[in-house]
Design a protein that fits this description.
mainly alpha
């Protein structure tokens, strides 16, 4: 399948998801906003890994054409479209992922040390985006709310963009491979075990999916509990305490 055909399929899939979300009357406008702000957030998270890796000598992502903000290059059909849409339609909130940006740790000038920075670049990007969104919300939209004005759609977009990025940063810092937080464990792992660990690491995605499925099965599960407390804390920082119950 050529690249033009793939791009066309992703555009069609995105339109189908949009129509499904709009047509499903049980979906709130906030859920739709969450769905659409999470996509650029996870894309920027992934691209930041490639940017930092390139700065440290690994141009794998650049050669693969992945150091771009074009969302089509980063869409994972399951993680970016299907899973978030199904969760939104089912009323479970929004969760998703983009296609990982390729990084060859062995090509970094200092693989063990710089590999930590490459991994932490994703959550750091989310924290920066959350801070930017928070500042814009507080400076531009919060004053009108304090005066009794409506919570406008642009204000909600900026607010939930900030909230989503706080959640993505926290989730990705869980010390479970292949999440970025596992790099803290990797760094203290004896060097002789590191090559074997890296080979094992690429097969650990089912662990994360199992954790997510367990969370939805328990409803609310440990992830929901953790994120709800985090979201309430962040809403309080932005001056909207108790917004998430």
């Amino acid at each position: 399948m050529d690249q033009r055909t793939k791009r066309t399929l992703w555009v069609v899939a995105g339109v189908v998801v949009l129509v499904a979300l709009v047509a499903h009357h049980n979906i709130s406008s906030d859920t739709i906003i969450l769905f659409f702000v999470i996509i650029p957030s996870i894309i920027l998270h992934e691209v930041s890994h490639g940017w930092v890796a390139k700065a440290f000598g690994d141009d794998t992502a650049a050669r693969a054409g992945r150091l771009t903000l074009n969302p089509v290059k980063h869409i994972d059909p399951v993680g970016t479209l299907i899973v978030p849409a199904l969760l939104a339609l089912g009323g479970f909130g929004v969760f998703g992922w983009a296609k990982p940006v390729p990084v060859n740790v062995s090509r970094l000038r200092s693989p063990r040390n710089q590999g930590v920075l490459v991994s932490l670049a994703g959550p750091a990007m989310n924290v920066a985006l959350a801070a930017i969104g928070g500042v814009v919300f507080v400076q531009v939209f919060k004053p009108a709310l304090l005066q009794g004005g409506p919570f406008t759609v642009p204000g909600r977009i900026v607010f939930f963009f900030s909230v989503v990025n706080i959640g993505l940063a926290a989730f990705n810092m869980l010390p479970i491979p292949p999440l970025d937080g596992s790099v803290l464990f990797e760094r203290v792992l004896p060097a002789r075990y590191w090559p074997n660990y890296l080979r094992f690491r690429q097969y650990t995605m089912p662990i994360i999916m199992g954790l997510v499925l367990l969370n939805f099965y328990l409803h609310p599960g440990p992830l929901t509990w953790l994120l709800s407390h985090l979201y309430n804390w962040w809403a309080g920082v932005l001056g909207l305490p108790g917004l998430f119950g």
